[in-house]
Amino acid sequence: MKKFFISVSLFCTIMAMAQKFETQKQTDAQGYSYETVKNDLAGVRIYTLKNGLKVYLAKNDDAPRIQTYIPVRTGSNNDPSDNTGLAHYLEHMVFKGTSHLGTSDWVKENALLAQISDLYEQHKAEKDPEKKKALYKKIDEVSQEASKYAIANEYDKAISSLGATGTNAHTWLDETVYKNNIPSNELEKWLKVEKERFSELVLRLFHTELEAVYEEYNRAQDNDGRLVNYALMDALFPKHPNGQQTTIGTSEHLKSPSMKAIHKYFDTYYVPNNMAVVLVGDLDFDKTIKLVDEYFGSFKYKELPMKKMVSEEPMTKVVERTVKSPSTPRMTMAWRTDSYGTQQARLANMVAEILSNNGDAGLIDLNVNQKQKTLGAGAYANPLKTYGSINLSVTPKDGQSFDEAKKLLLEQINLVKKGEFPDWILKAIVNDMKVQRMKSWETADGLATELYGNYIGERTWEQELDEINQYEKITKADIVKFANDFFKDNYVVVYKEKGVNDKLVRVENPGITPIKINRDAQSPFLKDILANKPAEIKPQFIDYKTAIATSQIKDKKVSFVKNKYNKVAQVTYIFPFGTDNDKELSLGVSVLQYLGTDKYTPEQLKEEFYKLGISNSFRTSNDQTFITLTGLEANMKKGVQLLNHWMTNVKADKTIYDQTVKTILESREAAKKDKNRIMAALSNYAKYGKESRMTDIISKQRLQSINVNDLMSKIKTLNNYPYEVFLYGDSQSDLEKSVKPFISNASLKPAVAKVYPEPATQGKVYFTNYDMVQMEMSKVARGGDVNLADFGKANVFNEYFGRGLSSIVFQEIRESKSLAYSAYVSFANASEKGHPNYVTNYIGTQANKLPLAVNAMNDLMADFPQIPAQFENSKGSALKQIASNRINRTNIFFNQLALKKLGVDYDIRKDVYAEIQTLTLPQLTNFYNSDIKPLKYNTAIIGKKENLNMESINKMGEFKEVTLEEIFGY
Description:
Strand order of the largest sheet: 1-2-3-4-8-5-7-6
Radius of gyration: 29 Å
């Protein structure tokens, strides 16, 4: 077996990350103490305020923006056993405002909220179903009265006014995390808003949000991944909350919430010594910590309750579970491990990487996937704060039993036990970890995400930095011993069979009267936020001519962008043709992945790329083909040589081709059982009709008759076609030298592209039956051809009306009427000149609420809502987002490449910014009335046929139930 020796260049690249890390305590000029870690290239500072609040600060100058996270060290594992789902529901309610934010008359509203709270306690205690209904009716009545004083979405309006993006939150086992990305000049206003919302909990609009959580619960039941995960975690952790309390909660607990219990939870866990503020971006350390202390330092420290430690007994047998859903069968196996940061967790992760890794060079990758013995298999480690697991999953081929698939996976584990894996792979895995860390941490979000995870896990930053060093110490002998000690008949296996899910719980709509949204009202707090104008950030637009260096190698244009951040390079070949020119090109690319050359077997090729720290990707779109190498610049020359050797000397193999065809055909059948794939195909059918790129597939007969030698000639001759080259890295000359030997003048021309129709949408309704709890509806309308002069209007329309937490659609459909968990309207500009724009209208909700949701959406779209204050907020937000965003890295080239399709050779954001600056609400209304309102929609609906309300459906247009064969084209 070949030995792998780390190159000198690679060693230099990663040496800084392999040094000794040591925590150092320092004090700034203002007297704030903080910790740094010696040799931390990210330069993170960690402060602890007097009240126990942790503050993580780091600089990133990509753009004048700051990625913010506020993590709270609590999640569903701390839910009371009789109120599961509480932490998640609380997360939703933290967006509802306070006694100052989101209310027009707090005294009156508060009295009514107290009444509602008492009614919920009575409702929870009541056992008689009829009396519970009567109590809920009373809750609904009082909630109607209280809603008169509520101002919905004021938090979202305040945050969006800053130019924030990515506003969201999530709850998991041990964490609840609140997220925003803000312009750096809005930091103090963001702190003011966040201080306000975490200062107290107000459970306003409680029952309408509860309906949204019902919808989320129902969506989870239609999610195969959650179905399998719930069964897996329950079996892995029969005692621990990891497996005994789902984050979404039980249906019974959701139906009978306790506002008092939620307040108690908030008062217990949302305290400064159990929270952190994570800020990464364009910031000044000294000014920032002073501001954070000014706003968050006043929160009072509070002792946390003693946490009961729950220990699991060691697993001594195989635990089997079976779940069912309409999708293709698959199987997941899992062994319980120790917690994140332990040696056992590291060893388990190394085994997972030996089995399946980024380079597709693991044992499962090469022995199962490369040889197409299943439809797909993989392995991954899932370390948690307490315990964890190593998981193996597989999708069997048609006719292949679960036992046969399981045997294949266990054979790979046995190879690890016997040490039958290459010596070099441990070093390659660790090097890949370093590269992935380097790429992730160079972005503000990547580093901020790591920091909040570090806080939740109660680990020091030194420990996190040193984790790589701990991995480097692991030897092959360590792995073999661990595998033999660890992998026994002590695992969980979940069989996901194709069938009817008989465990579905349909959470019924309790009957809520829609509330009236106070659209025009503003609290004094919000008015103050809007009135406070910080110094503006001036937009910066790219001059592509200076940002991209160009040269010529033979007849090929070569573009170069300098990587100012790290030692990772990228080489991309862009061919100006795709599947419209030759729909068998993508097949050739797929088959290539399973073929070797006269020098390397297919498996050896994967290993060679992984050794070099170079990944390759082939992507075909309708009009372009991209071949990309990404990895360490020091090894890029060898990567280019290997890629060209592979493509030029690929060895056609009929046996492998025939097997690939079988896999493709089986994958097609699997797609026809997958809800998301079906909905995508149905939406495409509603948009384009029978003749589309998606339905124009290579037939089974053609697949089986293709000569693999002819197919591979398409790959071998690619270099003889026109293309251009994009280089991203540190040295233009070195990268050009790497590609130059393999570039030749074009001697071939691509075939003429097939033109696919973009027919008018004419009020048709297409339905496909699928056994699911919810229904999903997507309406699509073809608009006029793309017009560059309307890009600004489209931007503000989406912000104001159609998308986001503060949009009118979200406020009305979800906040006011509780008719859907997800609803939006989106105007999408065409990406190419001479092609039409499209408007999409989406609703995902319970079947019985779909007619009401459709009516509500139709009412909204009948006459464009006129809310001047909200329009100004949306306009300002759009301007701030453009002003504070920067195009950098590889995006510089690929943005320019995309603009060429629109006939533009400059940064079009300059025009969009200028258009928005002068845009008025009457102008946006005129745009709506001329470009959106007159459109006719085709509708795609997926759901259980017996739940369709045909009276309502027929009002939408001419109804047709379409088969899977019609929408997929096979």
